[in-house]
Amino acid sequence: MKKSQRRIYATLPALPVLPAVVLAASLAVAPLAVPAQAQEADTTAAASVAAAQPAGSTPLADAQPQTLEWELSKRALLWDAAVEGEGVSVVPVDESEPNNGSLKLTKATGWVDEDTKALSVQWTGQVTYTINGAQTISFKDFALEVDAEGAGKITAVVSSADPNQAANNKEAKRVTVATFKGANVAVDGKTVMVGATPEYEGVVYKRDEDISYPDAWPTELVNNVTDSVRSWFYNSGSRWEDQKKPAPFAVTLELGEKPEKPAEPEPAPAPGQQPEGGIRDASINRDGHLILTFTNGTTKDLGKVVGKDGKDGRNGVDGKDGHDGRDGRDAPAGRDGKDGRDGTAGKDGAPGKEGAAGADGNNGKDGRGIASVKVDKDGKLVVTLTDGTVLPPVEMPSVQQQGMAPESIVAIVLGVIATLLGGFAALHTLAASILPKI
Questions:
Q1: Compositional bias of type Basic and acidic residues: which residue ranges (predicted)?
Q2: N or C end of the chain, less CB within 10 A?
Q3: Which residue has the higher pLDDT, 85 or 11?
């Protein structure tokens, strides 16, 4: 058990022992409810509530921390705090209890009027306090406003839930969390420090027509806290009244660059009077207005002085035909151009690929050969060809008559036969058949 819880429970009065059935029923009422602000995250997106920056004020520096430190109340230091978002944290009072401590915000936008000490700042981030391990109160997007008199307020988007009494859950909405007067605002160069204690004593909370409480936080806040823990925000006469009061808060802001003051325009001349210095120039602009420029640099628009465009004029009468022009001279013929030079011989082309093999030709007719050679009874040479043709007999000169060698006679005969045959194709065959017989 945490130290803070021991402190809380030690001061509670003794409670009657509940029957087991009643205790079980109370524990089974409902699971922990999701805080209302989580359910409505889409509908309660933080809209800027900081007042519009007035002329002459200085914006907060973008890259510097803008710090709000506030423990809310002594009682709130005992509640478990969970933070969400950028630039929000809990500063623990006791290192052994890191979830119990004061709230610290550092990311904000806004402005400060260094002359009047008025200011408006809005922080981002959310803190949710859990009370007695059950009920929750959430504060989101705190905003601070201080006027030139030192009076002001702190607002935030507040929601609250009770898992045992879901009908009493409070939806998230922006309410006044604290009001104060006589805030101490000190400007030291680029640093602004603000401190104040919120009002409590004498702030009446009226619960209904019959019941009211003399000391309280702002009514808007109290009414948006679930009923079971609402009494922690007003004086109900309990023994813990000193823990309910709002604690002082401290703010440290860093200023950015003050915007340059725009030049004030020169006062316009009174109606019917010409500006001092006389007219320097007069011109008509493209809209047809007469613009006067005076020697002091001011101008005056005297209104439109150009009338509407006139109607188009009628077409004129056609003129007489002109005389024919003289014939132009013939241009001299151009000279022949010089013969062009012969071009250089081109390089031999690469050898072509071998052509495909041709188809086989038809078979030729059978040739005629010598079938036989004989000497007839008259001593004549008879040649019979292979086709059956018999050549005319040839006289064979005898060796005795011619005085020649038999080989010479045969050669003469072969020549005669070759002539008859039209070629020498069969001479070898004839010689082969005759010479051995001689």
A1: 301-345
A2: N
A3: 85
**Do both 179 and 48 map to the same domain?**
yes
250 with 383, same domain: the answer is: no
Residue where a domain stops, chosen among 254, 272, 307: 254
Is the separation of the CB atoms in 186 and 192 below 8 Å?
yes
The 10s digit of each residue's pLDDT in 321-335 is 766 666 656 656 667
Residue 166 DSSP one-character state: G
Burial of 111 (0-12, 13-18, 19+ CB in 10 A): buried
Mean pLDDT of the chain: 78
Residue 192 has pLDDT above 90, yes or no: yes
* Nearest in space to 249 (alpha carbons), one of 176, 196, 201: 196
Asked if residue 305 is part of any domain, the answer here is no
Residue type for position 369: G
Verify that 245 and 394 share a domain, yes or no: no
In a domain, 170, yes or no: yes
pLDDT-based confidence at 300, cuts 50/70/90?
Answer: confident
302 within domain boundaries: no
pLDDT in tens, 14-54: 333 333 333 333 333 333 333 333 344 444 444 566 678 89
> Distance (Å, rounded) from C-alpha 419 to C-alpha 122?
138
Is 119:113 a contact under the CB 8 Å cutoff? yes
Q: Is residue 427 part of a domain?
A: yes
The encoded tokens of residue 163 equal: 């898992």
Final residue belonging to a domain, choices 231, 254, 277: 254
